[in-house]
Amino acid sequence: MKMKKTTEEIEKIEELKAFFKSNFVGSKKYKQNICCAVNKINELSGNKLADKILELINLPASNNRYIDPVGDILIYAKELLYSSNCSTLDNDSKESYVNYFRQFSQLVLGFFYANTFLTMGKHDDFFCELIANNALFASTDVVNKVRNGELGTDEFKKLVKTTGNFNNQYASWDYMEHYRDNKLKKNKIKYKFDPKYLFYKRMYPGIKPMMAVDDNTLANQYFKKAILESCKNGFITSSMWTKFKDYEVCHIWDKPGDRRYYASICNLVLIPRALAQLTDHNDAVKSLLRNKVHDLFDFIPEGETLPEKPHNYYKYQWRTI
Length: 321
Prior knowledge:
By secondary structure, this protein is mainly alpha-helical. It has 14 helices and five strands. It folds into two domains: 2-117, no CATH class; 134-315, no CATH class. It starts with a helix and ends in a 24-residue tail after the last helix.
């Protein structure tokens, strides 16, 4: 009976590792390092790690407040690694294992909380409050500076200096030069000619008809720069860039394939990674964020209709810089 239970535990952790490997974006070597850390922590737990993770996945929210599952599992992992049963590793190795395990738990727990848990009852108000408490937007001042050409890529600022005939109403950091097309990126096609948008060359001087294709990399970089600009008078400085390592930049109105909105500072928000998929899979959260950027920046994409505000929209406590 004991051997059977141990086998079941090993199968559980192998399933979680297989899920991690198929969803984590990183090199094969880096994945191996993470899985090595998971194996060590599982060994120290007596092959109980999978049960601990599943326990956290199934743990309900208490008093309508977010329970930090990643923080809880990291405390558990640290207790195991720094116990007397783990004397073979030095402190640097233990800290590396903790960092590797953090990335494993963020992906695994984040996925289940943002997907599986979403379908297990009506939690819209809870999730909206959670997002409001944690979401970071650029400031109105920064958005206006991007619209006016004072902030953005070097190429955009050069364009502003050479011509006064430009229109950046969408506050696009790169002046609508990129858009996302993951299939083209995968096939290593860097540029795509799109006849539909030829008129952009006339409307926005300086923009080439050959537009650059990107994944979310540049949108991520641009928006974090905008947040840092927004925080210059706040508690975050450029030296605290690492504060964003556990955050993801998300498109609020989607539309990353439209160059007008791909790098639009009005259309982006910074969300803790464990919550980021709520912006894709929860309609109430989508409505919350879309109404918020409309209130902040008077922003709504062309042809779209503003959704109804969530029931408690005016009661949520929004995060401030």
